[in-house]
Design goal:
The chain is mainly alpha-helical. 56% of the residues lie in helices and 4% in strands. A 3-stranded antiparallel sheet has the order 1-3-2, with no helix packed on it. Helix 1 runs antiparallel to helix 3 (50-60), helix 2 packs parallel to helix 3 (50-60) and helix 4 (66-76) crosses helix 9. The protein is globular and about 55 Å long. The chain starts with a helix and ends with a helix.
């Protein structure tokens, strides 16, 4: 469902780009819609040419292959059995430093200040994960590689895309484990 929502947003952006290229202008509502999307994905929209902004936003507003999302949810939630998944609807182990959005991990290292984001529903957890991957600076290389794949219309090398998620977890073997979960479970 989240990928479908993203494809709708991409379609809106592509329509805006086509209109801008054809008519050289957007109306106020369209500019507001574009700025709202840019803001959602943590992209600065002030003082940018609208065409450049649309192209930049399109790099961030794209799908995450289901196999990757499923495998990360499985790993990060202990296959749905973790305390965070069961009690707080947190499927992806996302960190936060906001006391109002998170839960203290029971085995957090002394001196660490992070919390794990909690959610009202699993849907909210999935939406947050997609925004995280599609906007956080740590996953910029993931987005750039995905954009190259989109340009070539070839998403067949999921393993290559996964290598750009190495900063998602502290485990040195995270990429190998993610690939194994995808392969073993035929995601």
């Amino acid at each position: 469902d989240e990928n479908e929502k993203i494809l709708v947003t991409r379609s809106i952006l592509l329509d805006l780009r086509n209109k801008l290229q054809t008519f050289k202008t957007l109306n106020n509502r369209e500019i507001n819609d574009l700025n709202k999307i840019a803001k959602k994905y943590n992209i600065n929209y002030s003082q940018k040419h609208k065409l450049d902004l649309i192209n930049e936003v399109l790099i961030n507003v794209d799908i995450i292959p289901n196999s990757i999302a499923l495998a990360q949810a499985a790993l990060e939630s202990g296959w749905g059995k973790s305390r965070f998944a069961r009690e707080y609807n947190a499927l992806f182990g996302e960190y936060t430093y906001d006391q109002n959005e998170g839960v203290v991990p029971l085995q957090r290292e002394i001196g660490d200040k992070h919390l794990i984001k909690s959610f009202a529903s699993y849907d909210n957890s999935v939406s947050s994960y997609f925004i995280n991957i599609n906007s956080h600076f740590a996953y910029k290389e993931f987005r750039e590689l995905r954009n190259i794949m989109r340009t070539k219309n070839n998403f067949s090398d999921i393993k290559l895309l996964i290598t750009k998620l190495n900063s998602y977890a502290e485990d040195d073997k995270y990429i190998d484990t993610l690939n194994m979960v995808i392969q073993k479970n035929k995601f």
